[in-house]
Amino acid sequence: MSVLHNPRRVNALRTSNPVQRRVRPRGVPPALEHRPILDTDDLAAARQELPRIFGVDTIDVTISGDHAFHAVVHGVRTRDISLLYLDLAAAELHIPRHGDHYGVYMQMSGSTDWRVNGEAVTTSATHAMVSNPGDQLQGVPGIDSTLLVLLFGAIRTNAYLSRLRGRAVHDPIRFGPGFDLTGDAASRWHSAVQLLTTELFYSASLLHQGVGVGAVEELLVSTLLYVQPSTYRDDLVAQPHPVARRTVRKAIDYIDGHLAERIAMADVVEAAGVSERSLQQGFREELHTTPSAYIRNCRLDRVHDTLADSLPTDGVTVSDVALNWGFTHLGNFAAAYRERFGEAPSQTLRR
Fold first, then answer.
1. CB proximity list for 233: less than 8 A, separation 6 or greater
2. Can you give the residue range of the structural domain that contains 134?
3. For residue 241, what pLDDT is reported?
4. How far is 12 from 10, CA to CA, in rounded Å?
């Protein structure tokens, strides 16, 4: 599992003018207690490190109130999800543009008044806030406010949405900003988050052994897609898709089950039970791609997962992983990888 790198920590006890910390429970979740990323009373240090941690270009942090400023962040990153604890005292946040990921901001304690593209949203014990890529966020934490934040990569979230729908996502999904945590459906979200935190807490868990990472991430993403209002939620919860879409689904199921093997088009056609021409047409209409391109993208996803899961001590190389998944022309592979994930495969491996 890859973990967010810890930046240089500032120890208030060693500064010339240490700032007195607030006296109150920190409330760091047990799963993140031993994963500190930032702990500082220095406003400049917070402004420098918070954008890197949250994957945005800029976070404007301004002092507010009469209390002493302090910023604490703990966190961990799995393949494509970051779980962060944020404790920001006596300061307001302004994010001009949310990064290329979706965020769910939940209160661990207290409350926060948000403006999401100008719309007022208050997070509390009963309501969370959901952000989309490119959103403008302004947050005013209340006294004793602490947040648990989950960040989901936009590319993988929309790719998974496409798989659930059995057809292409023309426009990236956009979630509504208010997330009611009190309904029956929200209990599924709480259960999914609890599973993640439990797996992270126990060092002997399957997740720490690199087993089931993708399944846990898919559970979190699918739960969010089904329970939170969005531009695609009605389509997801609608009646089953017509026969044409079921045909494409059969082909997808076959491809997913044989991805590590050589896949001949004739075998995909046989699994789908239609002619090759009909299958090609079905993929174009439903997924706006071809079966061959779909196979390539799925294999790129597997390469990404392997690189993201690897540690420096594993001895994993980009070329070996690419070849294992059938990419024999490394130049074409690197270009396709960058186009899909927005970074070079070597960057994923080092992260």
1. 225, 226
2. 12-234
3. 53
4. 6
Residue 16 has pLDDT above 50, yes or no: no
* Predicted confidence (pLDDT) at residue 266 exceeds the cutoff of 90: yes
Q: Do the Cβ atoms of 133 and 102 come closer than 8 Å?
A: yes
pLDDT at 327: 93
Quick one: tokens of 19? 């700032």
Share of the chain above pLDDT 70, in %: 90
Is the domain of 166 the same as that of 259?
Answer: no
The answer to whether the pTM exceeds 0.70 is yes
Instruction: Tell me how far apart the alpha carbons of residues 82 and 147 are, in angstroms, rounded to a whole number.
Output: 13
Q: Is residue 6 part of a domain?
A: no
| Residue 343 CA, distance from chain mean position | 16
Q: Residue 76: which H helix or E strand, with range? A: strand 70-77
Domain's final residue, options 181, 207, 234: 234
Separation in Å, CA 278 to CA 253, 271, 346: 17, 13, 39
Nearest to residue 160, comparing CAs of 208, 223, 76? Answer: 223
97 with 226, same domain: the answer is: yes
How many domains is the chain built from? 2
Structure tokens at 107: 């209160």
Residue 282 belongs to domain with CATH number: 1.10.10.60
**Strand 119-123's sheet: what is its strand order?**
60-63, 91-95, 137-141, 112-116, 119-123
Q: Does residue 301 lie in a domain region?
A: yes
**Same structural domain, 206 and 293:** no
DSSP string, 125-188: SSEEEEE-TT--EEEEE-TT-EEEEEEEEHHHHHHHHHHHHTS--SS---B-SEEE-SSHHHHH
Q: Does 110 share its domain with 60? A: yes
Cα end-to-end distance, the chain, whole Å: 10
